[in-house]
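WARN  no MSA supplied for this record, continuing single-sequence
INFO  ligand: nicotinamide-adenine-dinucleotide
INFO  echoing inputs
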Amino acid sequence: MRLLVTGGAGFIGSHFVRWMLAHEPETRVVVLDKLTYAGNPANLADVARDPRYRFVLGDICDAAAVDAVVAGCDAIVNFAAETHVDRSILDPEAFIRTDVVGIHVLLEAARRQGVRRFLQVSTDEVYGDVAVGSSQEEAPLRPRSPYAASKASAELFLQAYHVTYGLATLATRGSNTLGPNQYPEKAVPLFITNAIDDQPLPIYGDGRQVRDWLYVEDHCEAIRLVLERGTPGEAYNVGAGNERENLAVARDILRLLGKPESLIQHVPDRPGHDRRYSLDTSKIRALGWRPRYDFETALARTVEWYVANEHWWRPIKSGEYRAYYLRNYQDRERLLAPQPRRA
Ligand code: NAD
Ligand code: TYD
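INFO  complex generated
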């Protein structure tokens, strides 16, 4: 199989590329990635010399660049996206461009060039806040952040291309993922790297929000299974059933690093912050997927990686990211200043 992996230089995409090359000897992988702040060639350094792997620098919104790499590909797995909810609140436009317009460019190329399978890596955030119970795939999409709205829009285009043009589309709706190589703006790597430096762990609002944590290798295995065995036109929830409050995750990280809980610092809440996500994963389990990592193992492996790989994250935290980090907290305070906090 010749596989195009868009966004393969990011967190989950790079693990997926490594996973496919390791487990499928017949597969050749082309990565198309724009290398935004979140893309990092170092994530793929260990496969760079594999003759079955090729990297192309390019934007999924650029139809000519996309056409060139889609030529000859059997399947596309799209990881390329703007991915951080806080950034989507500060600058929604970038999300509409890559996460919506970019998907349309990819779908068009796939349709015209007769690609056999198109898998969109989507998110549990498309369901919006889940106060009780767990979302099944048929549940309505009720996105509440600009990020989630852009990912839900992409899924609607996927559905339209399946129904209208018969393109064999698939979507995975993964839950919050943790593991090595995650950009330290997301909660887990931010908390770990701040704790290593004895810096405060910023907890939004009361910290009682619930996320369902999934180890990156389990996420990759699920994507591979859906790519190979999923039913065209369908979406599949991917979650390991590790629902945890943010405060509990922060405390676990501090305990693993031997740091005091006094580093926990409550800061103003994220506007429109979803309280809880929860997935019913019967559908993907029926395909044969099971998570291999429990939460404790997943978190311990992740903490160990950040402790051992300071050379990966220190340059990130001292550069462009630092300006964003400071601005994020200033802007959240400004956004929330005139009104009382909303749920
Ligand atoms: P990431 O932010 O680490 O990486 C995104 C990658 O996409 C980067 O390499 C970036 O350079 C590339 N990219 C961005 N815009 C591009 C463009 N216009 N053209 C080409 N490349 C572009 O993201 P991630 O956390 O690895 O997430 C990957 C996918 O999985 C995303 O689609 C995200 O919505 C989805 N997802 C993530 C999580 C999570 O917890 N991280 C959970 C569920 C689903
Ligand atoms: P995040 O990793 O940004 O993922 P998402 O918003 O896509 O779920 O955040 C995970 C949870 O942690 C979410 O409820 C927001 C919260 N959070 C904090 O409390 N403090 C932080 O500094 C960040 C980045 C997130």
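Residues 2-183+213-242+272-293 form a domain with the Rossmann fold fold (CATH 3.40.50.720).
INFO  checksum written, moving to next record
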